[in-house]
Structure formats: C-alpha cells, structure tokens
Amino acid sequence: MPVTKAVLFDLFETLISEYAGGVRKASRSNKGNAERLGLSHDVYRREWGAAHEKRMTGQFADYFAVMRHLLKGQQVKVDDRVVKELYEERVLEKKAAFQGIDPEVIELLRRLKQEGVKLGLVSNCTEEEVHAWPDCGLAPYFDEVLFSYQAGFAKPDRSIYNLACDRLGVKAEECVFIGDGGSDELNGATRAGMKAYHAVWYLPLEMRDKITGHPKLERPLQAMEEIRRS
Ligand SMILES: [Mg+2]
C-alpha cells in the first residue's frame, strides 16, 4: 500500500457549505432571475443546465458570455444592467458559503500539513463562484488549486485529477480524494487511480446514502485515521 503523499479536496459541501442548519446561507432567493432577464423560469433553468459543462470547463469567457449566449439563443435582448446585477448577486451568494466553515475542517488541513502531506483543491466551478477563495481561511493550506474553469477540465474527467497529481508531483496511487460526491467526483477519482472518501459532514441525512461504494467520513478528522492506516 503506497503512503499517502497528497490529499485532494472538493470545495463546495466538502470544505465549505452553502447551507447552515438546512437553510441556505445566502439570504436572497434566485427564483426571480429568469423573469428579470425576460425568460420563463423553465427555459432559464433548462438553458442554464444545458450550458453546465461548458461553463465548468471555461468554454465561456465569463458569466456575461454565458448570459449573452443564453439570451441570444432565446432571441431575448440582453439587458447589460440586469446581467451585471445578477453577476454581483451571484458573487455575494457564493461568498456566503465561505462563512461559518466547520473548525474541524481547518484542523484537518492543519494536521495534514503538519504531517507533510501536500494539499490540492479540485473544484468544479466558474469564476464568479470563488471570489472569496483567496481570502478565506482555507487558502493558505493549499499547495495547488485547480478550478475547473481555469483547468479546462471538470470532474469526473480523469484529466483534472491527473493535472492535480502532476502539479503536486505525486502519483495517483499516492493520492487520496475527499469530497461530498457531487459531479460523480468519487468515481472519477477512483478511475484515476486514487482512493476516494465520501465526506458526509455537511450533507443532510437524505443525501448521505445516495452515494455508495466509497468509505464515508462522518467527521473531518476521521480522515486522519484513514490516512494513517493507509
Ligand atoms: Mg461538492
């Protein structure tokens, strides 16, 4: 069994959460977004969803390009003011997730660093979702940060895990991946040759058992025991 030289973490719902006590931290609901853009809610949701892969892999220059594409496809005139407002609201909404980080998460990162384990972040995200990253309490612990929109690949594509390993200078089998399981990231990590753990500490009960086949970590520090054992 190879010694664990690096741990890769997912960001949303693993290190940080958009929810506290089952309620979204961001006070504003984005229900009215479609109407403000001049679209029906269903069309907006469908088109936003259809653009997902391209958004995550940086195939749009930015949020504004996504919106121009989306509105043009529906023959709706772009209102730059509304798009700018929505962008700024989205930045704030995502910033809220960086508040109230579980102190045990920070403690886990601190202990891993202390033991000489390298840390990598592998997050499927777009530019406007991670404005708060550089100034958050987690950033100083990480040796490498891979945001999918910059990397050009998104989980579960093997390429993003490989890229993380290359940047950290480790082999996949020396890496452990920890995530809440969104984007099929745990199976992706396993296919890339890593041991994957299912982080459930932020997940509501009904979500925890939707993913099977990967050992669960009930609390962040449980990862230390698992890694020591490997
Ligand atoms: Mg996640």
Description:
With 230 residues, the protein is of the alpha/beta class. Helices cover 41% and strands 13% of the residues. The protein has eleven helices and eight strands.
Features:
230 residues, 2 domains, Rossmann fold, binds magnesium ion, six-stranded parallel sheet, 11 helices
| Order of SSEs | EEEHHHHHHEEHHEHEHEH
CATH level 3 topology of the largest domain:
Rossmann fold
CATH class of the largest domain: Alpha Beta
**In the CATH hierarchy, what is the architecture of the largest domain at level 2?**
3-Layer(aba) Sandwich
Q: What small molecules are bound in this structure?
A: magnesium ion
* CATH evolutionary superfamily of the largest domain: HAD superfamily/HAD-like
> Based on DSSP secondary structure assignment, what is the total number of beta strands?
8
| C-alpha end-to-end distance | 7 Å
Adjacency order of strands in the biggest sheet: 5-4-1-6-7-8
The helix content, as a percent range, equals: 40-55%
Low-pLDDT residue intervals, each spanning 5 or more residues: none
The proportion of residues in beta strands is: 5-15%
* Nearest-integer average pLDDT: 95
Q: Figure out the total of helices.
A: 11
Major beta sheet summary: 6 strands, parallel
Determine the structural class based on helices, strands and strand pairing. alpha/beta
Shape: globular
Domain unit count: 2
Nearest-angstrom radius of gyration? 18 Å
